[in-house]
Design brief:
241 residues; alpha/beta; seven-stranded mixed beta sheet; two-stranded antiparallel sheet
């Protein structure tokens, strides 16, 4: 089943462990109290925004989609140029923590945009997930959700939502769309051409990778798209231009 959402905003809270009680605080609230991490619940958070029962792992993957049209170079050429299109993705997933591991990581993102260099600034923010934690295979397989940002954007744009979904029992893969991120803004034509192609490739690649194929349910795949990500989701669903 394939789904799309035009825009989503929820908040998350994390407690509990699907495998029983952990003898320490995996959310390290003593160092990072509730409300100090992006995605922590706000006072007016709805009941269904509470974090789920699973611990959350996160990993960064570098993917290559072979033999794709190099839109930027083709625009200035008399012939079609192809290349292996690089895509960085972030994967959040239900995890099992080792003793002492905590639900805390640091993400690096950017403000501004590369085509206006004076505006570009790096910044970091904390998230409640464990970097490279062991996947929780025992309770899988889980639905796969592809997250697709706007133009420009980044794979961390909806990190709080990705963490929350993983805590509820989803594998969530968020794409840095090449030529369309804050650090790499290029011609809008590339975004129009590649957005749906990126979404389809990433979903297929994750479902075929040894680490993830046993963790994901290939019959239960969805898309969350924001702005141009929603455009891509509509195209992926078969909508015409």
């Amino acid at each position: 089943m394939l789904l799309f959402v035009l825009g989503t905003s929820i908040v998350a809270q994390g407690f509990g462990n699907v495998h029983g009680t952990i003898s320490y605080d995996p959310f390290v609230y003593t160092q990072h109290p509730l409300g100090t991490v992006w995605g922590d619940p706000l006072p007016d958070a709805p009941a269904l925004a509470a974090r789920g029962k699973f611990m959350v792992g996160v990993r960064t993957l570098q993917l290559l989609n072979p033999n794709q049209i190099d839109v930027l170079n083709t625009l200035t050429s008399d012939s079609t140029i192809v290349y292996d299109r690089p895509l960085t993705v972030e994967v959040w997933y239900p995890a099992v923590l080792e003793p002492g591991q905590v639900q805390l990581t640091v993400y690096t993102d950017f403000l501004g945009r590369a085509d206006k260099p004076a505006t570009l600034r790096a910044y970091t923010f904390a998230g409640r997930a464990t970097r490279d934690a062991h996947p929780n295979v025992a309770d899988g397989p889980y639905p796969l959700v592809v997250v697709s940002h706007g133009y420009p954007g980044s794979r961390y744009l909806l990190a709080y939502l990705c963490e929350n979904l993983a805590s509820e029992g989803y594998v969530v893969v968020s794409i840095d769309h090449t030529d369309s991120i804050y650090l790499d803004v290029a011609s809008f034509v590339s975004t129009v051409v590649n957005r749906s192609l990126d979404q389809k490739f990433v979903a297929r690649e994750i479902l075929n990778m040894p680490i993830w194929k046993d963790l994901c349910d290939p019959h239960n795949v969805g898309i969350i798209g924001y702005s141009m990500g929603a455009f891509g989701a509509l195209r992926t669903l078969g909508a015409g231009l």
